[in-house]
Amino acid sequence: MGAELKRTIIGAAIAVALTLAMLVPAAAAASDGVEHLHFAAGPYRVIPGANLILDQLNNVPKPTVNGFMVRMKPNLVYAQPNGKCCGKVPSTSVIHLHHGVWLSNGAAGQGEGEGTSYGGFYPFMAAGEEKTTYEFPPGFGYPIGAGDKWILNYMIHNLTDKPKSVYITYDIDFVPETSAVASTIAPIHPIWMDVEDDHIYPVFNVHRHSGRDGRFTFPDMAKNPYGGGRPLNLFTVDHPGTLVATAGHLHPGGLYDELDLLRPGARPRPGTTPGSVPGSVRLFRSYARYWDPHHAPVSWDVSMTATRADWRPAVKSGDVLRISATYETKLASWYEVMGIMVVWEQWNSDQGIDPFSHRLDQVGEVTHGHLPENFDYGGTQFLGVNPTSAPLCDTHKVLIAGFSYIPVTRGNSNCDPTIRRGQSLTFVNADASASPLSKLNPIAPDALYLASVFHTVTSCAGPCRLNYGIAYPLSNGAGDYDSGELGIGTPGVGRVSWSTPTTLGPGTYTYYCRIHPWMRGVFRILG
Ligand SMILES: [Cu+2]
């Protein structure tokens, strides 16, 4: 989240709710003093093909009394036919939660790292399609105030050309302040660690065959990752204390997120696990566990490991936390990927162990197994005719409209656009607004942005004609090109047109849309 969001949130006094929120009544309190609350934000009506970044600014459901959150389990569900919550969990290949980030202005659990100055709001929970369950070790909780205000920043990706209506749900285990056990719970604070801190869309690209030994680590292996500016993957600890929990977020293709600690003047003792940079120690490596039958690291059928309940590194003021994210590079290129860890700290606690002299468990455990919504892998059936059997046509332009790639010709457009070596083919996305008004504005999104459908032109291995699913197609074709999301507002790249690189050699090139992976096309280059 960047300056753009910060400015707009500060000016948000007159903002209206984007949608009506619904609070599903809390379940009865359990005898252990813990309430099991079920919240549902929405319904969000997601336009066909949408991949937009939006915010719910008002009435985000939350606990209404003071207390502690000790566990949180996120999900995405369909609205029922009557619009109410909750229907089924959608197949990940149809619609999925690209991300949800909850921000709060609550003082008792004041967060640090990313976005601590967004008009007093800081992020404290995040969920992507890996749907990691937050569960704090016994005796710790995130303090929630009755008067705290929450904002929900969300990106829901509708892979189809049909509208969908969904809710983001989050089950919270909550200990009210009035419960007898509340006095045994210590408050913890979130530290938002992100390899692209302070960006509203904190992403980077990983190219196939880049890095070393089939792996690419960001920012370590990136050329000039921060454009000469300050490293965005570091956080300097200002409250001494004890870290009690963390888990990573990454995207398909991701292998692990790493959290390291640097301490000026300190040297790691033998027996500790070295971190990525000299002088650092490894606090935790959050692994991606892929569940699909081949365990290929290519889909959202993934869980992340979280720290075990006894993980307790002590940190001092002036220590520097460092995050990096590692992706595989043998199978495909991975575009617009992330590396994020929310780290929880008990301030001013000296109960932790010194990570420079003691080894920590750095493997952890997954918070859930395979989820049933991740069943539709794709890549099993051949679809229709081979596109390379179409006639050639002499054109330099392809229109992307109505979820199709349409060669611009005088006659039949059912043909393979064909250019000569050294020339390029230009794609223009007519499904997204080209107006400057369609820039991202999380507080008051323009109607043109809300109606924008972003498409990409991304190389996939020929014939790129199998049925789509969560593991097919991959960005693994000749030329390794990608247009980015053609559109004005983020995650659009700021323009609606893109031209193929003039460096591509003669051949037949098959491509797909990363946002709507059933969209396919082909072009040819003659020698
Ligand atoms: Cu598309």
Strands, helices and their partners?
Layout: H1 3-10, E1 35-46, E2 51-56, E3 67-78, E4 95-104, E5 112-113, E6 122-127, E7 134-135, E8 140-144, E9 150-158, E10 164-176, E11 186-187, E12 189-194, E13 204-206, E14 215-218, E15 234-236, E16 241-249, E17 254-262, E18 281-290, E19 302-306, E20 314-315, E21 320-328, E22 334-337, E23 340-347, E24 365-366, E25 392-393, E26 397-401, E27 404-407, E28 416-420, E29 426-429, H2 447-450, E30 458-459, E31 497-499, E32 507-512, E33 520-526
Parallel strand pairs: 5-12, 8-11, 25-28, 26-29, 28-33
Antiparallel strand pairs: 1-10, 2-9, 3-7, 3-8, 3-10, 4-6, 4-9, 12-23, 13-22, 14-21, 15-21, 16-20, 16-23, 17-18, 17-21, 18-19, 19-24, 26-27, 29-31, 30-32, 32-33
Bound molecules: copper (II) ion.
Short description:
With 527 residues, the chain is mostly beta strands.
Overview of the molecule:
Mean pLDDT is 90; it is low at 1-29. Strands 14, 15, 17, 18, 19, 21 and 24 form a 7-stranded antiparallel beta sheet that branches. The protein has 2 helices and 33 strands. The longest helix has 8 residues, at 3-10. It is globular and about 75 Å long. It has 527 residues and is an all-beta fold. It has 3 domains: 1-185, Sandwich (Jelly Rolls); 188-373, Jelly Rolls; 378-527, Cupredoxins -  blue copper proteins (Immunoglobulin-like), CATH 2.60.40. Residues 455, 513, 515-516, 519 line the site of copper (II) ion (CU).
